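QA checklist item 7 of 12: single-chain prediction sanity check.
[x] sequence parsed
[x] length recorded as 366
[x] structure emitted
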Amino acid sequence: MKVTELKTFVCHAYRTNWVFVKVLTDSGMYGVGEATLEMRELAVVTAIQELERYIVGRDPHNIEAFYHDAYRDAYWRGGPVLMTALAGVEMALWDIKGKDLGVPVYQLLGGKMRDAVPCYANGWFAGAKTKEEFAEKAKVAVSNGFKGLKWDPFGKEYMNISGESLKESLDCVAAVREAVGGEIDLIIEGHGRFNVPTAVRIGHELEDYKILWFEEPIPPDDKAGLAWVRKKINIAVSGGERLYNRFDYAEFLRLECADYWQPDVSHAGGILEMRKIAAMGECHYIPFCPHNPSGTVANAATLQLAACVPNFYLLETMDSDVPYRKEISTEVTSFRDGNMYITDRPGLGIDIAEQAIATYLYACRN
């Protein structure tokens, strides 16, 4: 079996555009992957096209060799565009390998440790503006079975936050906590927007609400700064969605940046690179909680990792998404009592619907 072609499909998804990859072979078998990169989708499409010269004519089963050669020869190693393009193709190769051997991808990575993984909801707050609206939507999400909720309560504040805005943000957190009770995990998203003293100030204020973690409190450019914030506050810190390979995570580990690691399968080079990052964290008892707000294929790939990674802890899911999500792929998810169940279908267990995707064309997000 040899690879003959790479194809890309871009689907508008309101807040971003999902980028799907199909790797075709001369046997008629193909695999699918996802290379979604918010606001850089067309750059990723071009990068995927450039990867054809590394993969066409090669055996799709030799995934490590393809990845190594494409990464080594890039010269400008790492970064979001190359690593996202690599991730999409790499996922599709695992899909081919699993389908050819008739097993789910997790069987190729050591086998299943669990049948399901606990989830927390993102996007549950869509449309909410007041603390009362956040509280009501939080109740709905919990009634739908979620045992963890994540959101960014800080409005449009950047670097600094006024006393008035901080009070409004904390009032929102307090309202949600009161609405859902003490047994539901609350995760506060910072989106990498604050400077060090502001992040520390917010971190101290959040202690009263028993949150699970404070995510990306400062911009991702300064790992040492993140470690500094973590040492100055008494709540857990998470991060890593904007790190792109195991080499980035090696420094993340050395500097003791975060209590929870959040690489993204579509940004950090794909399934095997994520497996290596997870193993690094496992050696130091760090929970693995992938960033996962993307499309259907990325979710399927992340579930395969959830099955076999020992230190996998929580899966991010989008509680509200575009209404046509089920049209553009064969995604079938089973969610019960706060857990998402892992498919036993061969490969990634999912396919894309090309004609449906074509009805939701790329749209530029300003």
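[x] summary fact logged: The chain has a mean pLDDT of 96.
[ ] second reviewer sign-off
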